[in-house]
Amino acid sequence: MKNFMAKMGAVLIVFLAASASYAGTMKDHRDGKTYKTVKIGDQEWMAENLNYQTGESKCYDNKPENCDKYGRLYVWGEAVTACPDGWHLPNNQEFEDLKTLAGQKAGDIKKAGAVLKSTTGWKDNDGKSGNGTDGLGFGALPAGDYYSDLGFYGEGYGAVFWSSTENLSNYACNLFLYGNDESALVYNDDKYYAFSVRCVKNP
Questions:
Q1: Which residues, listed in sequence order, are joined to residue 36 by a DSSP beta bridge?
Q2: What is the model's pTM?
């Protein structure tokens, strides 16, 4: 009986190790900032938005405290080179894979967005909470976005993350999470929008 219990305990330990997400940190040596990271599937992602200052990057509403909270917003031309050495801006397929894993965690691909959202910080919409379950440790916060013709928009209600994948000359793919919608969309937008950036560790 003791041998059986010992074997079961060992199996349980192996199972927990295999199913748990690794949480670590990464230091950006360009400015000394440290970011939480998380292992999702076979990739290591930043678990926070990038907050490295580039020429056109912005803090939401031009308030430095929003950079501390949400990271910076980047136009696509700067987003593609903003990640530190050893890390890269995810491509369209990497976002599709992330969406698939989140859908598997939720048991429904239509609820992938809820798994990727943070458990706090999202505003209620039509009486329904916009918060997610953060089931993979991605912790997406509603950082909003910026466009020169529209200004800042969507803080508290939306999160958009640039990918490195272009679509025609003026557009690029992104991952879009919104309000009380539980879905995650891989979408296309004008490169001159300023969105959030998450970096992935190079293989």
A1: 25
A2: 0.89
